[in-house]
């Protein structure tokens, strides 16, 4: 059985991406390893007194994200596939690539929103970064 890394961001295309990963994992006899990379600044807010840290805000956000990951894992397991999930904080590209290495993954399944050009100049594209820097194949699913 091969490990397939599935990074999710809980955006509008997450369901499309999960469904495509399920089909791919069934075809490849794979286990889906879901990863969500949360930003390191959860719980910080700016106000009159500058930046302030609210640990309860961070805990609530992480609890909510773990709940969503559990729902996705349950959906995948209901399709007869093996699945696990993890939530990490950090730089998304590096964290995903490190996780793929630790799982000895054969593939990373990512979504493409169809954005390009000026958007990538200012915002960047995680999918684009991963395809450039990954030593394992990245399957890009069109989600637009």
TrEMBL record:
Name of one Pfam family that matches: Usp
Domain annotation UspA: ranges: 3-142
Lineage: superkingdom: Bacteria
SUPFAM superfamilies: Adenine nucleotide alpha hydrolases-like (SSF52402)
Family according to the record: Belongs to the universal stress protein A family.
Record PANTHER family: STRESS RESPONSE PROTEIN NHAX, UNIVERSAL STRESS PROTEIN UP12
Name listed for the protein in its UniProt record: Nucleotide-binding universal stress protein, UspA family
